[in-house]
């Protein structure tokens, strides 16, 4: 389903290694009654498949845990070609082929100017996903290239809005990304916009109770994704799309500070600090109260207290209006969930106003205690 009339995107490999897994996650649909792994059924619509004879693979431009990404050509078009691993045994093959079919199906369903543009896929002789190639670099590489300098605040908010709109589109289609971080975001060549470029760990929200909690990368993962058991064994645990909101809060913090979250800690130390000590990256002293509120709302402990991406978009747009006069280039607010003025929500439901009023009081009290 389209969330926008525009279709733009790109593809690039990951640069941060994902969380190590103690066992391969197997789709429950592949397990027979006696517990054995059945032959995978790649239920991919034939209309989504491309002719492998027209694919030409060039130089490698990225690599992740589940495959490699190459610059290439499909017919006369320059594209990004993601070649996925098939696995070393029947259990791995069943899991990876199921993941491939799921990723292809989801990428073909959603279209938005800030999401990767899906072109097609082929499942034989290789599992391949073809997307539009963006000449820009990943957001992670860009941030590292300008470090220790911080991004211009207008640029930061513009990037944050791009990311929030992409995530809002996914959530509107019942998809949880589960691995939102700068490595999975691409800049366009002119560095004016950001595209979400990887659906490798995305899942439909209706099946979250069957998913392994230990997924994504610890520094960006919501604390409800793990416990002392999940850190050891990869326990299955139910969660909802608010895990993406938490990750967005960490990404927004990175955009503002241009620092690595939980710097000085290992991945496991960062996970422990966030989940069991309720620690979060420190906010800059000069940060705007409105931006501090958005970030802290995103990474609050209770997932149900976090805002939706549509609310985040409204809050970010409201803050942007305080920096510059309203511009026709900015999207108009949808009044179905409320309007914003001067950085605060003014026409939300009573329940939502109460929730965010409580959060503001909580954060104000915390700042008071810290200043004493």
TrEMBL record:
InterPro entries: Kinase-like_dom_sf, Prot_kinase_dom, Protein_kinase_ATP_BS, Ser-Thr/Tyr_kinase_cat_dom, Ser/Thr_kinase_AS, Ser_Thr_protein_kinase. Keywords: ATP-binding, Kinase, Nucleotide-binding, Serine/threonine-protein kinase, Transferase. The keyword Secreted does not apply. ATP binds at residue 82. Pfam families: PK_Tyr_Ser-Thr (PF07714). GO terms for molecular function: ATP binding; protein serine/threonine kinase activity. It comes from the Eukaryota. Residues 1-19 have a biased composition (Basic and acidic residues). Residues 1-26 are annotated as: Disordered. One of its GO terms (biological process) is signal transduction. Gene3D superfamilies: Phosphorylase Kinase, domain 1 (3.30.200.20), Transferase(Phosphotransferase) domain 1 (1.10.510.10). The keyword Transferase applies. Coiled coil: none annotated. GO terms for cellular component: cytoplasm. Residues 55-320 form the Protein kinase domain. It catalyses: L-threonyl-[protein] + ATP = O-phospho-L-threonyl-[protein] + ADP + H(+); L-seryl-[protein] + ATP = O-phospho-L-seryl-[protein] + ADP + H(+). Belongs to the protein kinase superfamily. PANTHER family: PROTEIN KINASE SUPERFAMILY PROTEIN, SERINE-THREONINE PROTEIN KINASE. This is Serine/threonine-protein kinase. It comes from Actinidia chinensis var. chinensis. The lineage of its organism: Eukaryota, Viridiplantae, Streptophyta, Embryophyta, Tracheophyta.
């Amino acid at each position: 389903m389209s969330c926008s009339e525009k279709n733009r995107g790109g593809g690039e490999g990951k640069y941060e290694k994902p969380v190590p897994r103690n066992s391969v996650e197997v789709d429950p649909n592949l397990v027979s009654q006696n517990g054995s792994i059945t032959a995978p059924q790649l239920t991919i619509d034939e209309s989504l498949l491309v002719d492998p004879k027209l694919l030409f693979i060039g130089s490698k431009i990225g690599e992740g845990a589940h495959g490699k990404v190459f610059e290439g050509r499909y017919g006369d078009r320059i594209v990004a070609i993601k070649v996925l691993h098939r696995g070393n045994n029947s259990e791995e093959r069943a899991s990876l082929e199921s993941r491939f079919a799921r990723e292809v199906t989801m990428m073909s369903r959603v279209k938005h100017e800030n999401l990767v543009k899906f072109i097609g896929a082929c499942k034989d002789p290789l599992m391949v996903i073809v997307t539009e190639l963006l000449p820009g670099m990943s957001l992670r590489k860009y941030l590292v290239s300008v470090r220790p300098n911080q991004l211009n605040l207008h640029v930061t908010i513009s990037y944050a809005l791009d990311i929030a709109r992409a995530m809002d589109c996914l959530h509107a289609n019942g998809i949880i990304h589960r691995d939102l971080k700068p490595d999975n975001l691409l800049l366009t060549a002119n560095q004016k916009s950001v595209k979400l470029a990887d659906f490798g760990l995305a899942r439909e929200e209706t099946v979250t109770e069957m998913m392994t909690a230990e997924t994504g990368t610890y520094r960006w993962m919501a604390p409800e994704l793990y416990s002392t058991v999940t850190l050891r064994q990869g326990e299955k645990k139910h969660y909802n799309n608010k895990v993406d909101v938490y990750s967005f809060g960490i990404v927004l913090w990175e955009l503002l500070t241009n620092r690595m979250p939980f710097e000085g800690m290992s991945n496991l130390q960062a996970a422990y600090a966030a989940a069991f000590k309720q620690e979060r990256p420190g906010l800059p002293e000069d940060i705007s109260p409105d931006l501090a509120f958005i970030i802290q709302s995103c990474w609050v402990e209770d997932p149900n207290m976090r805002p939706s991406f549509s609310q985040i978009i409204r809050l970010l747009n409201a803050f942007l209006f305080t920096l510059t006069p309203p511009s026709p280039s900015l999207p108009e607010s949808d009044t179905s969930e409320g309007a914003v003025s001067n950085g605060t929500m003014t026409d939300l439901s009573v329940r939502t106003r109460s929730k965010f009023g409580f959060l503001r009081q909580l954060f104000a009290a915390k700042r008071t205690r810290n200043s004493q």
